[in-house]
Write the structure tokens for this entry.
Amino acid sequence: MCIKAKLGRHWAAVGCVGDTGTVEFSLVADNLRESFRVIAHSRGGGELRELHGVSIASAGVTFQMFNTAFLSGPVANETELKQRIRLPVAHFDERGQEWAYWVCEDWIDQPARKRSRRWFEHYGLRLSTELPGMIADRILPPVRPLPRIEVRRVRGAATWDAFCEIGSVCFHVPLTWFREVFDNESVWDRFISFVGYVDDDPVSTTSLVRGAGVIGVYNVATLPGSRRHGFGEAVMRHALAEAAREHGMERVILQSTPAGLKLYERMGFRTVARVAVYSS
């Protein structure tokens, strides 16, 4: 059966229960949480905690988007939502850390969801962005020829530097912040990342995290001067092909920006969740 949510004036399916009984939006939420757990676990100052209905995966870094909280299960009403907000607020206030709450809104009961932004703001959290969570049962072939690009897996200083420099530019944060997040080599064992090169110049990145029975795609980024040539799609397809060869084909999830939505739909992704990011 399908769970539906009202988007504006229309109803849309956001999670379907398949043969395994798994709700699709929870695959997006669980893999997203796992990606941040991988990063937090790789750092000496990182912290993983499970509170009542809330997961903490904090890298303990300056870049607040990587000091994170997540809902870990359904929220039945506004009273419960307020409790789920107060718990991580207290956690991060105690540590004096700036942080972000990555909220899969499909966990929240519809009446409470309508007022959720008000309650996050009440506790000092502003809405930073809203992202459609998407899933693909299989990746469709490209609709146009892909450009030639050399793709290297992140291993060693040169590819690490390139990955961080592209991330810094594309996500609009200081390079020192991005380096701090990924400064431990052990992160690359599970946050499997790739850099695409054109004429030996790094131009694009993609990362993959396996978890919750799916492959999650993250850090899809292309330098501004190299966009609209298909480099990001080419690097992403290369990464997914390598994952399929190594682990067999699995369903794929990601969170899309508005700019990438049409591309991902052409690749076979469909929206099954809404992810709101609030920051302190």
The first strand starts at residue 2 and ends at 7. Confidence is low (pLDDT under 50) at residues 1-21. DSSP finds eight helices and 13 strands in the chain.
